From TrEMBL:
Example of a GO biological process term: DNA transposition
Protein name per the record: Transposase
Ranges where the Transposase IS116/IS110/IS902 C-terminal domain occurs: 135-191
GO MF term set: DNA binding; transposase activity
Taxonomic superkingdom: Bacteria
Organism: Pseudoxanthomonas spadix (strain BD-a59)
Transposase IS110-like N-terminal domain residues: 6-106
One Pfam family cited in the UniProt record for this chain: Transposase_20
Membrane-traversing stretches: none
Length: 204
């Protein structure tokens, strides 16, 4: 199977598609049915890269479908595509021409897919939360419920110092030197810290 480069010009209602080197040009609806048709057309091809532009969100559903199908997807800024088109001498701008330009560009631009980056970040965050949870539950009196509450209400745990976390949770003393009031005071602030404070008062 020859390597295949795919350019897709995404609009709200339609997808203009160019598949190289097969010179296949398609126009499909930007719907679930259209996405399924595109996958059917690409079946049997070894897709090296599939390039599309960021179009204010119209491309997101398609990207999810392509990524789930295991296809390499690259999303780029439209300005980069226009500059590339001008470098190729493609002054006219139509959906089929734009799709062809994107297909050619797919051979030289291989940025990581945002969806894959988001997945890696989510996995790393999950691992971090697991490690923090184990550390928290190693403290006497803190069980799964308290640890989960702390992670939910104080996601900054592990990233800030003890003093910063105490201040954020409303547990740190602060100076009050205004008028006749002077000295250090404690105040429990509403909101963020309340659930962890309540849980922290009794083991679970």
């Amino acid at each position: 199977m020859s390597l295949t480069l795919v350019g897709i010009d995404v609009a709200k209602a339609t997808l203009a598609i160019c598949v190289l080197p097969h010179q296949l040009h398609l126009t499909l609806p930007n719907t679930s049915a259209g996405h399924a048709q595109l996958l059917a057309h690409l079946k049997g091809h070894s897709v090296d890269n599939l390039l599309l532009e960021a179009t204010g969100g119209y491309e997101r559903a398609l990207m999810r479908v392509l990524s789930k199908a295991g296809l390499p997807v690259t999303r780029i800024n439209p300005r980069r595509a226009r500059a590339f088109a001008e470098a190729l001498g493609k002054i006219a701008k139509t959906d089929p021409i734009d799709a062809q330009v994107l297909a050619h560009m797919a051979g030289v631009v291989k940025a990581p897919c945002i969806l894959k980056i988001d997945k890696v970040i989510a996995q790393a965050q999950g691992q971090l939360d697991d490690a923090l949870g184990r550390s928290l539950m190693a403290v006497a009196g803190i069980g799964q419920v308290t640890a989960a509450s702390l992670l939910a209400y104080l996601p900054e745990l592990g990233r800030l110092t003890r003093k910063q976390i105490a201040a954020l949770a409303g547990l740190a003393p602060y100076n009050v030197d205004s008028g006749v009031r002077q000295g250090r005071h404690h105040r429990l602030h509403a909101g963020t810290a309340h659930p962890p404070q309540r849980h922290g008062q009794r083991p679970n």
